[in-house]
Amino acid sequence: MKSAITIGRSKESYAYRMILPSIVVLVLVLVVPLFLSAYMSFHSWSLLGQQEREFVGLANYIEVFTSTRILDSLRITLIFVVASVSIEFLLGLGIALILNRPFRGYKAVRVVMLFPMLISPAIIALVWRLILHPTRGILNYILVSLGFQAQVWFDRELALVVLVAIEIWMQTPFIVLMILAGLQSIPQDLMDAAAVDGTNGFQRLTRVILPIIQPVIMVALVFRTMFALRNFPLPWVLTGGGPAGATNVFGIELYRQAFSYYHLGMAGAMSWVLVLITAVMSIMYIRFTYREALS
Amino acid sequence: MNVGRSLWVVFLVLLLLPVQAALATGQAEMEDQEPVLTMMFSTGGSGRTLANSAERFSEVTGIEVDVLQFPITQVYENQALSLSQGQPEPDVIAVDDVWFDAYRPFLEPLEVSQSVIDRFVPSMIDPFMDVNGEIKGLPVRMGGDVIAYRTDIFEEHGIDLASITTWNDVIEVAEQITDESAGEYGWSQGYAPLPSTLTAYLNFLSSHGGQLVTDDGSRAAFNSPEGVAALETMSTLAQTAGVPGLVNLTYNDQVDAFRNGTAVMGMLWNPRFTAINDPEFPHSGNFGVLPNFPRGEGMSRGVGRVYGWGLAVNQASPDKEAAQQFVEFVSSPEEQLRLAAEWNNSPTVQSVFENPEYLDAVPVAEDMASAMRHSIGRPNHPQYSQIVDILAVHLQRAVTGEVSAAEALADGEEEVNDLLSQ
């Protein structure tokens, strides 16, 4: 008769054998490329032109932090991330609070809210390009019909603002969805108790609701920040980084290094800088959320 | 036990014998068959034209050519990856003239006689010549930037074509025919994405006698009095008569602008002339081309740029001979004439420009040929795409009026020299 320990080990071994294929696939498609990109980032590694792959130490990383163009793209990306994620959060919270209350047709509104999130960013970019076309776009047509002046929406002053606005339109539903899920997990008796204690709506929001759903908000913000930092399809299709570099986000600059110039070493270094920035921002969010527990 | 094992071995051998025989037969059959060539090409008019030529080649020779069509950036990326990895496919390589420098180590030198080389427009074959003089590609669809205009608008304003010889004349006419209240603008040009901005500037630059980089390619040369004058001209046209949002205008947007009447004059890659003159749109039949490419002040003639597609052979292709045969077929005078007359392809062979069949099919061809008479190719430089991305941003800053032409070029020069010194 087999002992309980033997049975346990056998089950464990069976479980490992079952997940082994997935682990192999993950290692091949995730871990190997990750380490390969780190290895490349310390080399002068080009697919075209010079074929020798020389070890260059930190030269690629130094280039990332000294190149005017790359630093400019980092600055634009940070403006894009801060502006879009903060407005998405405020809007998302407001909409989620409204949608959390039952009203006539609230289920339909919740579904419609998700539509922008379901469409491919490239398609969204193409549609907005048409809407905002300076001479034939419907937005300018409406403006002119109402007696206003037509605008060139993608000029140097407005292009980044427009890009942020479209990103907000596209991604706010994600925040709404997350916060709404958090709101619906708050026990009703807790809200009733707060009401009995004489709190007003604002106090209930800041003292009860937000502290309870803080972990959900944190997850939503971490995800949105990660996605916004590496955004590529929307600005690429919408403006190609222009005009005059006004929307040249880090993702576009990285794409150019990797697929226009085939400087894989430089692209590797830029990718790791992006990973580090994402990690730092995520840690900041987590520390802020759990600051009391951590202290 | 041993008997069992032996039986298994015999069974496996018996099983493998017919498989081996089938493989051998298959291989022999494949050796007898004509090869199937593969290539990639840009979607749209270019892709359709080349696919048609491939079909005809197949009819004539029995060799099939599979033309896979992708957006231009994907063609570049896919080919670059295949070539750099030494992959045998695609057999035939589509080469935009400015890609040549990046691709040339992976391309097979073509065995072509001097008489074949001489049949092409010199500025169109030059971009495919390696540093050692070897020809590694033949031009099949190349055109030049010309000034297209609306004949009805010019007539309305009583503009005499012969009076337009300099860029200052062009500015004057562009301002004269611009009517913002009617939504008509006297200047349009494809400025997006960034490479288009630099290509646009190269036309102004060469017409003013400037050049992009020094002859040895080691330093920027555009920040010169000629370069500044060229950029000032480009900016003035954009700011005083340009279609709104000019710096975001892609080539397709420009074609649309001509078709819908927003653009009444502009610099256009001549193979797109047929697209703006499409009979389905209201202004069809009202387009012409200035027979003289404008010159900068103090220059004796205007010098535009020709650019476009050539075909080359992948060094790693197992069917190099058939691939070269295809390249020669598409670039032959007969096929170039057929493609020009039937598919509005912009020809690369000199004799086609004088052929009555072509002139009948494309009445403005004579003016186009005249405008491109002195045109030159775009510069070949190993870091061209990086120069583009740096300089085009500064050019756009000048075009939008954010900085002066001199400031833009000084900033661009510093960055480009920084790149070239690495």
Secondary structure topology:
The complex is a heterodimer of chains A (295) and B (422).
Chain A (H helix, E strand, L loop, with lengths): L3 H38 L1 E2 L9 E2 L3 H8 L1 H32 L6 H8 L1 H4 L2 H11 L6 H8 L13 H26 L3 H9 L4 H29 L3 H6 L11 H11 L3 H26 L1 H4 L1
Antiparallel strand pairs in A: 1-2
Chain B lengths: L1 H31 L3 E7 L2 H17 L2 E7 L1 H13 L7 E5 L3 H4 L10 H5 L3 H4 L12 E13 H6 L10 H11 L16 H14 L17 H17 L9 H9 L5 E5 L3 H4 L10 E3 L15 E9 L6 H11 L2 H11 L12 H6 L3 H7 L4 E2 L6 H16 L5 H16 L2
Parallel strand pairs in B: 1-2, 7-8
Antiparallel strand pairs in B: 3-7, 4-5, 4-6, 4-7
Helix pairs in contact in B: 8-10, 9-10, 9-17, 17-18
Describe this protein's structure:
The complex is a heterodimer of chains A (295) and B (422). Chain A is mainly alpha-helical. Chain A contains 14 helices and two strands; from the N terminus they run H-E-E-H-H-H-H-H-H-H-H-H-H-H-H-H. Chain A has helices spanning 4-41, 59-66, 68-99, 106-113, 115-118, 121-131, 138-145, 159-184, 188-196, 201-229, 233-238, 250-260, 264-289, 291-294; strands at 43-44, 54-55. A two-stranded antiparallel ribbon of chain A has the order 1-2. In chain A, helix 1 (4-41) packs across helix 13 (264-289), helix 3 (68-99) crosses helix 8 (159-184) and helix 3 crosses helix 12. The model of chain A has no long low-confidence stretch (mean pLDDT 89). Chain B contains 18 helices and eight strands. In chain B, strands 3, 4, 5, 6, 7 and 8 form a six-stranded mixed beta sheet that branches. In chain B, helix 9 crosses helix 10 (225-241) and helix 17 (384-399) packs antiparallel against helix 18. The model of chain B has no long low-confidence stretch (mean pLDDT 89). Chain B has helices spanning 2-32, 45-61, 72-84, 100-103, 114-118, 122-125, 151-156, 167-177, 194-207, 225-241, 251-259, 273-276, 320-330, 333-343, 356-361, 365-371, 384-399, 405-420; strands spanning 36-42, 64-70, 92-96, 138-150, 265-269, 287-289, 305-313, 376-377. Chain B is α/β, with parallel strands linked by helices. The A-B interface holds A 47-49, 68-69, 133-136, 150, 152-156, 239-245, 248, 256, 259-262 and B 73, 77, 80-81, 83-84, 102-103, 105, 183, 192-194, 243-245, 247-248, 256-257, 260, 262, 382, 385-386, 389-390, 393-394, 396-397, 399-400, 402, 415.
